Amino acid sequence: MSEVIPEPRTAGDDTAGRGTAQDAVPLLELVDVRAGYGAIEVLHGVNLALKPGSLLALLGPNGGGKSTTMRVCAGLHPPTGGELRFAGRKVNGISAQDAARLGVCSIPEGRGIFPNLTVRENLWAATGTGARLEDLEEKAYARFPILDERRHQLAGSMSGGEQQMLALSRALGTDPAVLLLDELSMGLAPMIVSRMYETVAELVEGGLSVLVAEQFARAVLPIADTAALMLHGRVVAAGPPGEIEDRLSSDYLGG
Ligand SMILES: Nc1ncnc2c1ncn2[C@@H]1O[C@H](COP(=O)(O)OP(=O)(O)OP(=O)(O)O)[C@@H](O)[C@H]1O
Ligand SMILES: [Mg+2]
């Protein structure tokens, strides 16, 4: 299988993406990134580029390395080789706090909310970066009115969809430039997944750059600007969603 690596960006390149800054340096870029757990390498040279104001879907079957890639991007897992770049600057070894300060925000697999806190307390816990609770609540409840009704409910007792809405509201409270979303669809009914991705698409329209890891390609391909297929720790193809969809065998295409 030949590797298709995203080309370095050149002036006038307008092949993908709805963002306006088509000539811009990728906000987030992985160049030949290697990473692993102990002595076992699981990323064997990953190449990815997230353009400003676009949505990049990272697809592929279980164990391919999607979550590990997301953790590397979030500063939660150090690369052992290659380069992690934010806005063109090499930041290998960056801490999660510093990545957050640069505007990178992540919703991990499993949502990363506090189940024993209420909705409101969960939003409050996201004010650490300087956001005001009132602003966070106002935005969250406007976007997802159900969270308003649930504001005093323990997050862990809510439905999966409601929990994902809370996770998204918490993440957006920090006003990030880059959002990393790992398996948004996990455990959710297809209708809820569509609803969540509609919200994500609106955020991208508003200028946010989003990297989504998804096993279920069908959920995210319709709103993606670019897609990348990850197999066995490598991105084996990247390009327009239609092209990548053609490369996904029915084995890899979820849904
Ligand atoms: N904490 C860990 N310790 C050891 N190995 C790990 C750890 N996390 C992941 N791995 C291994 O790294 C490889 C890549 O896993 P990763 O979770 O990145 O894949 P994924 O593409 O996100 O899979 P999925 O679609 O199931 O979420 C797998 O072989 C996995 O077993
Ligand atoms: Mg995963």
Outline:
The protein has 9 helices and 10 strands. It is of the alpha/beta class and 255 residues long. Adenosine-5'-triphosphate is lined by residues 37, 42, 60, 62-68, 215.
Describe this structure in words.
The protein is an alpha/beta fold and 255 residues long. The protein folds into two domains: 16-103 and 176-249, Rossmann fold; 106-175, no CATH class. It is built from nine helices and ten strands. The strands form two sheets. It has a six-stranded mixed sheet with strand order 6-7-8-3-9-10, sandwiched between helices. The relative contact order is 0.19. Bound molecules: adenosine-5'-triphosphate and magnesium ion. Adenosine-5'-triphosphate is lined by residues 37, 42, 60, 62-68, 215.
